[in-house]
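Folded chain entry
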Amino acid sequence: MTTAITIGMIIIYVAIMMGIGVYTARQTRSVSDFVLGSHSVGSWLTAFAYGTSYFSAVVFIGYAGQFGWTYGVSAAWVGIGNALLGSLLAWIVLGRRTRIMTQSLGAKTMPEYFEKRWNSKGLKIAAALIVFVFLIPYTASVYNGLSRLFNMAFQIESEGAYKIIIIVMALLTAIYVILGGYAATAINDFIQGIVMLLGIIAVIVAVILNNGGFSEAIISLSQIPAEGSAMQGPFVSFFGPDLFNLLGVVILTSLGTWGLPQMVQKFYAIKTGPAIKQGAIISTIFAFVVAGGSYFLGGFGRLYEGQIEYAANGTPIYDSIIPTMLSTLPDVLIGLVIVLVLSASMSTLSSLVLTSSSTLTIDFINGNIIKNMSEKKQLVWMRGLLVVFIAISALIALFQYHSSVVFIAQLMGYSWGALAGSFLGPFLWGLYSGRISKASVWCSFAVGVGLTAVNMGLALSGGTPLIASPINCGALCMILSLVIVPVVSLFTPAVPFQIKPPTPESAIDREYDRELAQEELESATVSAAADV
């Protein structure tokens, strides 16, 4: 019965998703249409696109499971941090300025922003390669989270069936993104976001009721000791048994969005004016419910310690915790959860593959390998690279699932650490200050990629990593990026900027010009200060 209900819900979901892809394909005629939806996406669609790209099976299966197990209900602080720092503050600080700066510079991607902001083709090429390489492990982690859930729902044991699941998910992602580009992902993200909001609330209520209600569940959880801690009731305490490492998770998962190209690019496409303020509120509420709910749910994972999977050395297989909790739900809820996580993951996958393929085409191949690519040829290359990127990610997911190298959370830690550790400082400081040097951007790239790669290499080779936790390593890379950029800029030549208005050709551009009048005064002040 569970299988029939779940399959029926999945078929309906896939049919809607493919229909949207076909519908939006008619409106996708140029590179701007494919990558940015022609800069005309409204607040609700952008906010939901931001939220659904932010939270996927990686959060719901990997992070909620691992950190709920480690920190108990205090893991909900991660979700609160995601809402306030990763959503609200990110929209306030980055949203409007990013929209205006990138349209003024004519930048469609983050690497193109680096090139035009600092007049450096080398920065663009380096950033494009960083994006392509380090988005792959993140995509692989999304596939793994989905596969864990499908295993729970359909009791899949054979390797062949698992491979089929990975391949089908990859094909579905490729089809609707290839058809409709950003417009398809934005509309799908809105529908997927509604499913996520309703689904997470229903799941939390069901799991708590299965454990005797909220009071009974909290009492049971309070009686479980934490390894190496003398604290009483550590998993129901306000900050949990390990506040320092909990803070590292908050920083990685919240501050990281400020430097991730697939997240920041949502601000390139939004309408200006009230849409950004509205989007900030919608996105924050979405994060509170979805992220806060996911981590809060994971906090009760220890109540299932006799049912989850364990590795040969006795370590819990963290990625099995949430699926184990969900396996006790009624049939209809299991089907809803499958669609919930499928929705969250497909939206994240579409955002990742679109960002990677567009970046590699626009910033690396065009003008370097192939000179003067036409719009039509760029679209062909982007769609072709979508397939390549998805295939590589699926292969990594297949390998990682059958190994004990890393869990989902670690894959995401490596990816976010390198990307946000490289881009966060240059992107943020470059938006607001005319005193930032090109050398400081190179230094940030080197530290973000270098520290992550060395730490990852040591861990995968069986050595002792510089920083034991990939999560803390990623958080450190982000903080270093924010510090390195202004410090290095004090001793190296600055590259000032000036916002230039585009030629008004539409109502969107006219609205943009009204905001530009205020921004030009700011820009002139910044540039003058940089020249002093």
Q: What stands out?
A: The CA atoms of residues 432 and 522 lie 9 Å apart. The chain has 19 helices and no strands.
